[in-house]
């Protein structure tokens, strides 16, 4: 495989199509089937390695480069039989062309997903960190390189390129850092957002430096300054054509598809043709063919409708199928057998110090801006990672003879080693949830009823809005107890590279607001109808599903929210593709597990999904609370008590008891009795607030009672977690289809029923529960020994509902 880069070799090229094994033709002797085998093998090996490396915190780049090592001359390529069969020298002309074709569209995708407005939005902190991450290692490595030149004997080739080696080790890439953060699920963390905005600055500085070095090198090699000036002139013409011709065209395409229309195939075809022409234009006038597609990609507006459509059509095929073959081709250029120990030590010495300078250049401005030292250190480690962009830069530097082949091999090996070490360190040491889990938990039960209640609701689609607004109305905001609602429209990070959290101010226009416009208008109308009682703050969060919960949890912690409401991933009136529904379900799971406050999961069977108020359509809106005991049930009752103050709401507390067992399963029984007594004392004369006890002995009895009374209500509130040792829940966990709803919630959702009752499953904040799981793990004998005569329980009302 190495011969493909060393010499010109003549070989017989037969254009006949393979007739197949039956006629004596081997597919490995023909270009097309050989290319298909190479693509399949490269993609398969990369995907297999990624399955093993992802749990270890390794990025996709590591799997891709290792696949190149395995299939290249470093490992399997040493075997002549494998090399001549799968990767013969004659195939590298086509494979190399195909690989760079994939790289061209890969870089175009990177440009499409990049939001250049991040540069304008970057604050002084991000600018200082970005400049420090680039300038500090560049300057100090130059100084260190000069020192090595005069103090250390080295080969002439290394002596000529040592300064360039030091400068290329100082580079960093916006795309590489964004991909690393996505792989580690840190994009929505505070550190991740700062890294993204800072890496945009350092990445632009790196690209400008690389462009200056490469263009200057070409000018030196040409030795005709008029030709060099013409190259710069046509480079400027390319940029002007992209800005003043291509940019208006794609903006017109985006406007023509912004009203819910699908992107036309003719538009996509036109953009792809312009990408190919831009690459051809660059090749004609002495520029690298990758330059044009990158510029065009940057000028395409990110996100829907145009950016998302282009990324969806290209990214999976290019990244998973075509791109892996590029690393095999790159692996063919690596020759570890020719590496001398002395050269390796010198270049690695520079690489280690480049990492130290980079971490220091990031930490100093970060600490100056009062960032905690551990976070500043982790941010420096993030900037220490490099990837495919740096490999491309090194390949071009090798082709321009700025570095030799041995130095290229060592530098690529250095990138793999450092990235392979730093990524797992970040994955296992940095905890992005510490910021919103270290404070005091917030719950409705312990909130002051006469102060403003703060609730955060998450919606994924405009069709979710009526359900949320009807729940808001049922929460009963009034002047004595106003409510502040934060509503976040959650959107997948499709066609974008950086997550965005947008706060929509009244009357202000935002580039992302068109996707949330209908939701915002409905919220503003609800706020106007309830002015003085309700304040609404709408947000749009655009982020990957894997880290979407970080936005919600951080916002809940910052705004001191008592309850986060999420919609169940299934809805009878809203069709959601299964893959997307599973992603939404995963977001709900993450919010439940990480939220600093209580969480409610709303399952609407369709009755609440209407534009008219549900409370105005009936004289009495029936709400039931199913109470078995525990912190979650107490939180559900506390929330229902706020609802019960609405004149059109009738609240019924249904408490399930087991007379024979003496309620032993309610480990937290004293607090349960207290909140029940408070409820009954406060509503003793209120005919719209009822209390009912149901005596059951086992899970079958519980199911039977629930079936008989569920139709009596429009909305049922229930706690998520209960004592698993309770005989009333025996066997229910074995049939639990949706664990996020708990036993009772899952039973209500899964019951074969044609009722229209909606379900709200409530979980109290984890850290306020004083060892909730420990309570359920207690020996039940401590509960059986309790003196029940000291516990005052109001007599139960067993009349009809």
Write the layout of secondary structure elements.
Layout: H1 3-6, H2 31-53, H3 60-71, H4 80-86, H5 92-113, H6 117-121, H7 124-151, H8 156-168, H9 174-183, H10 190-222, H11 225-256, H12 265-284, H13 291-299, H14 306-332, H15 341-368, H16 373-383, H17 388-399, H18 405-429, H19 434-437, E1 453-459, H20 465-474, E2 483-492, E3 500-503, H21 517-529, E4 534-543, H22 548-558, E5 563-567, H23 578-594, E6 598-603, E7 621-627, H24 631-643, E8 649-657, H25 669-682, E9 689-695, H26 699-709, E10 715-719, H27 742-750, E11 758-763, H28 772-776, H29 781-784
Helix pairs in contact: 2-3, 2-14, 3-14, 5-13, 5-14, 7-8, 7-10, 7-15, 8-15, 9-10, 10-11, 10-16, 11-12, 11-13, 12-13, 15-16, 15-18, 17-18, 22-23, 24-25
Observed structural traits:
801 residues, alpha/beta, Na+/H+ antiporter like fold, Rossmann fold, 3 domains, 29 helices, disordered N terminus, ion transport, CHX17_2nd, potassium transport, potassium
What can you see in these coordinates?
With 801 residues, this protein is of the alpha/beta class. The chain has 3 domains: 60-429, Up-down Bundle (Na+/H+ antiporter like fold); 451-505 and 513-598, 3-Layer(aba) Sandwich (Rossmann fold); 618-801, Rossmann fold (3-Layer(aba) Sandwich). Helix content is 54%, strand content 9%. The chain has an 11-stranded mixed β-sheet, with helices on both faces. Helix 5 packs parallel to helix 13 and helix 17 runs antiparallel to helix 18.
């Amino acid at each position: 495989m190495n011969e493909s880069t060393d010499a010109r070799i003549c070989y017989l090229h037969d254009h006949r199509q393979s007739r197949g094994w039956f006629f004596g033709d081997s597919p490995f002797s023909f270009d097309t089937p050989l290319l298909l085998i190479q693509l399949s093998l490269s993609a398969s090996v990369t995907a297999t390695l990624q399955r093993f490396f992802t749990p270890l915190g390794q990025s996709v780049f590591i799997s891709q480069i290792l696949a190149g090592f395995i299939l290249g001359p470093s490992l399997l390529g040493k075997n002549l039989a494998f090399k001549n069969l799968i990767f013969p020298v004659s195939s590298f002309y086509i494979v190399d062309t195909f690989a760079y074709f994939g790289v061209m569209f890969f870089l175009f995708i990177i440009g499409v997903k990049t939001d250049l407005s991040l540069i304008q939005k970057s604050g002084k902190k991000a600018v200082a960190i970005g400049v420090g991450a680039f300038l500090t290692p560049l300057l100090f490595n130059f100084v260190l390189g000069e020192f090595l030149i005069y103090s250390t004997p080295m080969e002439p080739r290394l002596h000529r390129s040592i300064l360039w080696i030091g400068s290329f080790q100082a580079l960093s890439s916006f795309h590489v850092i964004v991909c690393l953060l996505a792989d580690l699920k840190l994009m929505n963390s505070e550190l991740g957002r700062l890294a993204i905005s800072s890496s945009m600055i350092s990445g632009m500085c790196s690209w400008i430096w690389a462009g200056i070095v490469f263009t200057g090198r070409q000018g030196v090699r040409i030795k005709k300054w008029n030709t060099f000036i013409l190259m710069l002139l046509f480079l400027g013409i390319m940029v002007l054509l992209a800005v003043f011709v291509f940019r208006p065209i794609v903006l017109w395409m985006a406007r023509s598809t912004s009203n819910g229309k699908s992107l036309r195939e003719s538009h996509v075809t036109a953009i792809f043709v312009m990408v190919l022409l831009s690459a051809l234009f660059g090749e004609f006038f002495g520029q690298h063919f990758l330059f044009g597609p990158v510029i065009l990609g940057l000028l395409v507006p990110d996100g829907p409708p145009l950016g998302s459509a282009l990324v969806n059509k290209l990214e999976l095929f290019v990244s998973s199928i075509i791109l892996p073959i590029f690393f095999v081709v790159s692996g063919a250029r690596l020759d570890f057998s020719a590496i001398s120990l002395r050269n390796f030590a010198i270049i690695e010495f520079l690489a280690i110090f480049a990492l130290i300078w980079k971490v220091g250049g990031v930490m100093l401005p970060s600490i100056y801006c009062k960032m905690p030292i551990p976070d500043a250190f982790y941010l420096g480690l993030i900037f220490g990672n490099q990837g495919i962009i740096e490999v491309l830069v090194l390949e071009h530097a090798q082709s321009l003879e700025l570095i030799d082949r041995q130095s290229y091999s060592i530098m690529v090996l250095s990138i793999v080693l450092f990235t392979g070490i730093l990524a797992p360190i970040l994955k296992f040491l940095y905890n992005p949830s510490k910021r919103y889990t270290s404070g005091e938990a917030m719950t409705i039960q312990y909130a002051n009823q006469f102060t403003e209640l703060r609730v955060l609701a998450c919606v994924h689609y405009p069709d979710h809005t009526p359900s949320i607004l009807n729940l808001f109305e049922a929460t009963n905001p009034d002047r004595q107890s106003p409510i502040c609602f934060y509503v976040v429209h959650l959107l997948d990070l499709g066609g974008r590279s950086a997550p965005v959290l947008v706060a929509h101010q009244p009357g202000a226009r935002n580039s992302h607001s068109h996707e949330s416009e209908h939701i915002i208008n409905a919220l503003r109308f609800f706020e106007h109808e309830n002015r003085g009682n309700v304040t609404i703050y709408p947000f749009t969060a655009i982020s990957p599903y894997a880290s979407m919960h970080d936005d919600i949890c951080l916002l809940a912690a910052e705004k001191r929210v008592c309850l986060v409401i999420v919609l169940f991933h299934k809805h009878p009136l809203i069709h959601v593709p299964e893959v997307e529904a599973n992603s939404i379900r995963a977001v709900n799971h993450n919010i439940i597990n990480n939220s600093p406050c209580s969480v409610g999961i709303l399952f609407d069977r369709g009755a609440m999904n209407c534009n008219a108020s549900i409370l105005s359509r009936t004289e009495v809106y029936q709400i039931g609370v199913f109470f078995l005991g525990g912190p979650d049930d107490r939180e559900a009752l506390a929330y229902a008590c706020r609802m019960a103050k609405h004149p059109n709401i009738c609240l019924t507390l249904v408490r399930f008891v087991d007379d024979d067992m003496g309620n032993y399963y309610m480990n937290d029984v004293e607090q349960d009795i207290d909140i029940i007594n408070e409820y009954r004392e406060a509503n003793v004369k209120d005919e719209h607030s009822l209390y009912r006890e149901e005596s059951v002995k086992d899970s079958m009895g519980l199911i039977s009672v629930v079936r008989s009374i569920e139709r009596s209500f429009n909305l049922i509130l229930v706690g998520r977690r209960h004592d698993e040792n309770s005989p009333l829940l025996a066997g229910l966990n074995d049939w639990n289809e949706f664990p996020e709803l708990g036993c009772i919630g899952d039973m209500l959702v899964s019951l074969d029923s044609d009722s229209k009752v909606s379900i709200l499953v409530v979980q109290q904040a984890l850290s306020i529960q004083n060892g909730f799981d420990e309570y359920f793990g207690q020996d039940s004998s401590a509960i059986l020994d309790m003196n029940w005569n000291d516990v005052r329980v109001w007599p139960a009302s067993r009349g009809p509902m």
